[in-house]
């Protein structure tokens, strides 16, 4: 099954998501700030990155730009996870280099569909 890098600084969210994704058979790598997320992406070469946009050290917008500018990480799909659900926030995430956008609170079945789409799989029921 696919390897997912979850870059999230709120423990309750990364705990919830990592446990549920592992139960679905995904391998989950965690990073708790944007800088660590960029490092983990470069070393671990995940299949998909779930990227919180409000991160310490290096925010998600900057991390997405760094990942999309690197020849070794440019092709990895990034799904932005953010509480920013205002008009224009989806466009801002896409412009930063994210391939998709998922507003918080997380709708796990919708997120699974987005992960499947990013992996080029047919959508799974959640």
From TrEMBL:
UniProt modified residues of type 4-aspartylphosphate: 52
Superkingdom of origin organism: Bacteria
Residue ranges of every copy of the Response regulatory domain listed in the record: 3-119
Keywords from the named record: Phosphoprotein, Two-component regulatory system
Pfam families per record: Response_reg
Name assigned to this protein: Response regulator
